[in-house]
Design goal:
By secondary structure, this protein is mainly β. It has one domain (19-131). It is built from no helices and six strands. Strands 1, 2, 3, 4, 5 and 6 form a six-stranded antiparallel β-sheet that branches. β4 and β5 form a beta hairpin. It is elongated. The chain starts with 18 loop residues before the first strand and ends with a strand. 0% of the residues are buried. Residues 121-133 have low confidence and may be disordered.
Length: 133
């Protein structure tokens, strides 16, 4: 008795059924942007001391103030080191708001389906538009 068997062979062939046309435009516009600006300035205060010292005092820090001793030698009968004054330097931080204009670009893309060599023809398929921002 003969035994039969069927088999299936599948092949695929690419077929062009349509095309699309993509165009892109770049637009630019100015956009206001709020920015926080930080700066520093210094206040200098001279404090009269007029005190004799045996050796130069070091530069020191008191809180947010840096104190720099200013010395001079005075001749009397003998030479003495006198702390003449101190310079107090204080940092003051300021914050201001400013509005700047920034150039922002955006691209727009048009996609148009082309069927049978004509744009937008065939089966009610019209131009498809997408815009990106």
């Amino acid at each position: 008795m003969p035994v039969l068997e069927e088999s299936v062979s599948v092949e695929r062939a690419p077929k062009v059924v349509g095309r699309v046309r993509v165009t892109k435009r770049v637009t630019a516009r100015d956009v206001p942007v709020d920015v926080e600006l930080t700066g520093e300035r210094v206040q200098v205060t001279r404090v009269r001391v007029e005190r004799e010292v045996s050796r130069p005092p070091p530069v020191r820090q008191e809180g947010d103030t840096t104190i720099v001793p200013v010395l001079e030698e005075r001749v009397v009968v003998q030479k003495r080191l006198v702390l003449r004054e101190e310079v107090h330097i204080k940092r003051v931080r300021t914050t201001t708001h400013a509005q700047k204009r920034v150039n922002v670009r955006a691209e727009e893309v048009d996609v148009e389906r082309i069927v049978n060599g004509e744009a937008g023809a065939g089966g009610g398929v019209g131009p498809a538009r997408r815009r990106g921002r």
